[in-house]
Amino acid sequence: MSKTSKISAIALDRILGKLSTIHSLVKGFYLSSILFFLAIILLPAILGILTRVDTLSELSENPQLFDRAINAIIASFALASFVSLLDLVTGIPLAWLIVKKGGRLVMILDAIVDLPMIIPTVTLGFSVLLFWSESNPFTSLGFSGISPGWLTVLLLHYTFSYPVVVRVLVGKLMEIDETYEIAGRTLGGKPLTVARTINIPLAKIGIITAYLLAFARSLSETGATMMVAGLFENGPIFIKRALSEGWESPLVFTSLTLISVAVIIFFLLRSLGPRVRIPFRRANPNFEGLLSKDSFCLFRDSISLLILTIFIVIPSIYLSLITLPNAINSGLILDVFQFRGVWGEYWNSLLISYVIGFIVTGINTVFSLPMAILIAREKFGSQISKILDVLSNVSIMIPSVALGVSIRFFWGGFTGLPEFWLIVMSHLCITYPYMVSTMVSAIRDIPKELEESARTLGSDPYTSFRKVTLPLAKYSFLSGMILTLARSVDETGATLAVSKTVKTVPIIIVDWVKDESLRIYAGLGATFLLLFSLIILLLLRKLVGRGKYA
Amino acid sequence: MPEVNIVNVVKKFGDFTALHGVNMKVESGEYVSIVGPSGCGKTTLLRIIAGIIPPTKGEIFFDDRLMNDVPVEERGIGYVFQNIALFPHMNLWDNVSYGLKVRGKPYDETHSVTLEMLELMKLTERYRDFPHELSGGMQQKAAVARALATGTSLLLLDEPLSMLDAKVREKLRYELRKIVKDLDLTAIHVTHDQEEAIAISDRIFIMRRGEIVEYGNPIDLYLSPRKIFTSYFLGESNVLEGIVIDRKSDEVEVQIGNISLKAYGEGFQKDERVVVIFRPELARLEPGGSMRIVERSIEKGYYRYILKDKSQKFIVKTFEKFDIDGKMNLRIPKEYVRVYKYPERGLNNEIALR
Amino acid sequence: MPEIQLRGVWKRYENILALRDINLKIEDGDYVCILGPTGSGKTTLLKIIAGLVHPTKGKVYIDGREVTGLPPERRGAVYMHQTYALFPHMTVYENVAYGLRARGLDEETVRERVEEVLRLVNLDGWEDAYPRQLSGGMQQRVALSRVLVTGDKIVLLDEPLGALDARLRLLVRDELKRLKQELDLTVVHVTHDQSEAMAISDRIILLREGSIIQDASPEESYFRPTDVFPASFIGDRNLLEAKVVRVDGEGAWVQFKGGEEVYGKGGPFETGDLAVVSIRCEEVKIIDEKSSIPAIIVDVSFLGSYVKYYLRTEGGTLLESNTSLQEYLCRRYHVGDKVYLKLGEIQLFTYPRRGLMREVEAI
């Protein structure tokens, strides 16, 4: 750092430090973040759709569309509940394996599980489509491919929600003090008995969270679903149809219903879920002892790994495996780098996607930090903290395309904002919960005593935060930012809802897949998106990792 | 009830050796404690006895039966944890009955045994409460009830009282011993609190750096231990360096700073450097002398004095009250003074806690 | 030099009353222990003095000026948390230097002061180590250095010895007292361990359920507690139920359930009242000659520097007697021996409203 920049940095520090001691300023700082949240994140998402409630009356004029809407809604919820349940049932054994076994092999496994999360969903969607419809382990047995429809959608949703569930479960299971498990064993419990009566109940909140996240993901996903759906129609697909056909009242109806039911389910599960208790009557030690034996565990783990490979890993990388070699051989790859033909548009939208991504990440980081501190440190009391915690997570449950519709109505009606900024606004709403919840857990992980000690030793609130909390939370904050960036670049549904002309890269890819003549490019485009995302990810990690805390 | 035999147990964690060949025998029905500073390996040893971790080498026997390959849930032990470890998602009743349920015991038996245990620990009215609603002392009593409900005859306790308030500790430790004796159990109790060990055990094993330093009954270890570390670690002692100035048949006289003390001892030479140890409560103070009182406080009915003579520091506990800054003389009968050979690796090393 | 004063301090958290009408004054150079069972509010009280918690009602004064609204960094008092709260991402040096740097001192002075204090606690040479590389005892010394180096005269310690091994605790107690003398400090030290409070402080403030129950020197607290709870919490005592049979000027004659009659100071009582008899265990003496209280020994506990006999009188009253080690070595009694008892100083207290067992928090 040059001398002048160093001096100005110190001066800035001192000014901010002094400012942080002024009680009213600090209060204003936190209030402004709540204001931002309400005005930019929460209200547009919910109110927008409400402004068009009057159109609902028109629905009675077209009963066919009304029926279709209802079917789409039911399809969405049925799919989401089933897929999430499947995730839990198959995910718990794998999470258990990761937590208990440990070791280098398992660390590799841990990283592999994340594969579908790193891959942009459009890429994933196309890859899944190709894998299941064209060739898969079963075709070699004479089984024909699965044509696009509800089954491919189910397989797709399973593939991308599975890692989410396993991630959360692994996190929660690791947090449980192993002393409880040991206590259960010393009392005579076989490993299986202890796992089902102690570890799992203690991870209950994690299980509910995992279920809700998978549920929300399935409900929300649009782009990839469109690719693989064929004639199947769920909520987001129907909304997209309604948007392009101009069916306003079914649009409003479906969006509104999806939002309200989703939010209700969210609150119900979060408040009632923890109260569900399955009482433990008696164990069958002989039977459970058998199931705890090493041989059975090996069998169980092999099945988990098989499921992981066939349903998660291979479908995820299938596309890249077949496209790249082809492209390189056929010379198609040169077109890409020379911006020839469709590729000009492609690079343009890639640029747009990332510019939007960085803007969204930047704004969200700045405004969610005070909110996160407010919630984690209960600056306005524990009640308010709890309410804000729940509210900031609400938009996760709202299907992104419905959210996009709501935003378009809200801002479009007011200011006639250009499409680019509408996209930014909708992405802000969608990514805000990820940022806030990552930051909140990061701050909560740092004991309050550290900041308190710093204060009593003489440093003002700003300096205490900068020198003590920030360095310790740095990596978690970075994860939150990367998550936000990835989510924004990935986002399709809301983008489709708010913009007709500005195209982000996922939209381009979806268009190419739908158009038979352009399909050949879709694979390459999707693969490049993946590579590009990986590069940016690694660069970001390196950048902050290298910077030493001064 | 079982007799526990620990033969040559070694435990390594990577390059670090936590236990260097420990040998220990606990008689049936004995209440034994293993005391030592943090890091001495006592908890590791207990976990090996319980079967929670395997030894690198060595054997564990319960009543002549080799337990090495027996998994923890089949060892029939009761284990009480330092951080209590009552299952937070179960109420008291479910916690205490857990051990019976996992064994598939019929409902009637589970019910009556659980009730019996709650009554034994005087917790019957609180059966519906959850762990966080109980005080620390009650939680630990519940944990003991839970461990005993399985019908175990070997109770293993890992620093069971260290998380509790000092007063609660004093009250609970006596109760613990009483229950173990009433039920005729064998108990192995690990602690870093030497006062606790002295109060409750039939025999004490002192550990340091992965080895057993000395063992014996509390009174012998307190008054006439073989090792200097034992004196230093159990309670407070005056551990002083001196030079032998006179030697008779079975007596020595040692010069420590400005004072000289007589003791029983054989095999020492004149001018030999030795270590002299005596308990503060067995000495007396008389006015007039070269020692100056620098601190006075009250402890267990005694007045505890810190005296300084030149650079030597002495601790004396007596019932008489003297003023601070007073000049005193120290007297102690020779049967209460013990003399030891000066340790090869220096006194500091000998009494080091780690 | 500083002086701390609390006037009418209350603290309420949602529906829990943590502190109730606290009034106290701590003089220059005092070593004061705030003693009490877990949950009595002692940490809250300390945090209010530090400025980490804001009182619901009442005022806090340091050095004569009101500091109730002042943030912690401006009070001139340092605080050490019971977990030490060492900054894990900073070395020992950086941890200890933190407070000095926060005050804007130049690097030269900082280096001097840090090295001086590390020498004082015997940690010189460890400057570049990280907290996770140190033992519990060493971490405690780093935490102590960090607060002492600032030069603030008021030091607030929250259970500073709680995480240490019992043996180490005894050693560090003397160290703490020495540091206080050498650096001329005013210390407020929170603990639940009454022997620690007795050994180290000039004054003990006993807290229970948010209220100050007793405020006295260790000697006074030990020999002349003001009520049943302090009597049970500080020192080792027999506390028994008895009925008043005859009132005297300074006290009364009371009778145990077992029939024995003893005399104690206290009151005022009326005949027929229920009272609590308080006898220090070392005041229950076993003698050879016949006395009015025959008893049988039901258990013996060797406790190192003293021995505790558990006795049952002929009338069925249970008493504990502490004998010094010296006396025990001269004359040992065994379980089953029939002996006679002589009771020394007896205090009488009014029978507590919530009953004797609940009052002494029998577990």
Walkthrough of the structure:
The complex is a heterotrimer of chains A (550), B (354) and C (363). With 550 residues, chain A is mainly α. Helices cover 81% and strands 0% of the residues of chain A. The longest helix of chain A has 39 residues, at 63-101. Residues 546-550 of chain A have low confidence and may be disordered. With 354 residues, chain B is of the alpha+beta class. In chain B, helix 3 packs across helix 4 (136-149). Chain B is elongated and about 75 Å long. Chain C is an alpha+beta fold and 363 residues long. Chain C folds into two domains: 4-223, Rossmann fold (3-Layer(aba) Sandwich), CATH 3.40.50; 236-359, Nucleic acid-binding proteins (OB fold (Dihydrolipoamide Acetyltransferase, E2P)), CATH 2.40.50.140. Chain C has ten helices and 20 strands. Chain C has helices at 42-50, 92-102, 107-120, 136-148, 166-183, 194-200, 218-223, 228-233, 325-330, 356-359, and strands at 4-13, 16-26, 31-35, 57-62, 65-66, 77-80, 154-158, 186-191, 203-208, 211-216, 237-247, 251-255, 261-265, 274-280, 284-287, 293-302, 306-313, 318-324, 338-343, 346-350. In chain C, the strands form four sheets. A six-stranded mixed β-sheet of chain C has the order 6-7-8-3-9-10, sandwiched between helices. A five-stranded antiparallel β-sheet of chain C has the order 13-12-11-14-20. A five-stranded antiparallel β-sheet of chain C has the order 15-19-16-17-18. In chain C, helix 2 (92-102) packs across helix 3 (107-120) and helix 2 (92-102) packs parallel to helix 4 (136-148). The mean pLDDT of chain C is 92. Classes of the chains: A mainly alpha (550), B alpha+beta (354), C alpha+beta (363). Chain B binds chain C through residues 37-39, 135-138, 141, 165-168, 171-172, 174, 192-196, 198-199, 218-219, 222, 233-236, 279-282, 295, 297-302, 304, 306, 317, 319, 353-354, and chain C through 37-38, 135-137, 165-168, 170, 174, 177, 192-196, 198-200, 218-219, 222, 233, 235-236, 280-282, 301-306, 322, 324-326, 329, 361-363.
